[in-house]
Write a structure and sequence with these properties.
206 residues; alpha/beta; 6 helices; 6 strands
Length: 206
């Protein structure tokens, strides 16, 4: 299974002050929904991993969460979320990797092969701690002031993209180039394989 893990607020949709409580509060970032569609078209399932403390505090319920998922579109495979507040110390609240580990267990997938996209330091830390390849987009409220290099609290190897649309373009192009290189390598190996000797004709026994 080919999977991409994506944060929600600041990555797919506009990050609001407080919490997004109703579908009317939900506003997709430019190009984000098309990016998800392009990832799907390239054969990737998209899963959302998000901290949602507003759910735990009763500011919205599961019905509202499901309506928000519908607003994103059916192209999202699932939403994994942590409803706990920061002070509760939950292991599935980013920057801890619990949500990502749940996704790996659910889909029986090696997280080292999974790319994860988010807009914050905590998203990158959680992704890297789980073994994913971290990708930072600069569309959230807390984008770093500098990206070359990133501040030291970001995991080594974090890749930077302007937004989710740019990530999708870069990622799909990289995967297509990798597949083409692997196909070329396999073809080269086949060409170098010696042809099998023709079978010896049968001999009659007198």
């Amino acid at each position: 299974m080919k999977l991409v893990i994506v944060d929600r607020d600041g990555t797919i949709c506009v990050e609001r002050e407080g919490y997004i409580q109703t579908p009317d509060d939900w506003e997709p970032l430019p190009g984000a929904l098309d990016a998800i569609a392009r990832l799907n078209h390239a054969g990737y399932h998209v899963v959302i991993a998000a901290n949602l403390p507003g759910l735990g505090r009763g500011l919205f319920d599961m019905a509202a969460l499901n309506r928000k998922r519908a607003a994103v579109g059916g192209r999202v495979e699932a939403i994994f979320y942590c409803p706990k507040a920061p002070e509760e110390g939950c292991s599935c609240r980013k920057p801890l990797p619990g949500l990502f580990q749940q996704i790996g267990e659910r889909y029986k997938i090696d997280l080292r092969q999974v790319h994860a996209v988010g807009d914050s330091e905590r998203d990158m830390q959680a992704a890297a701690a789980a073994g994913c390849v971290p990708h930072l987009v600069l569309t959230g409220n807390n984008a770093p002031a500098r990206t070359d290099p990133l501040p030291p609290q970001f995991p080594p190897g974090t890749r930077v993209h302007a937004d989710l649309a740019a990530f999708a373009s870069d990622f799909i192009a990289e995967m297509e180039a990798l597949q083409a290189a692997e196909a070329q390598e396999a073809e080269t190996r086949l060409e170098k394989t010696p042809a099998a000797a023709p079978p010896r004709p049968a001999q009659a026994i007198e």
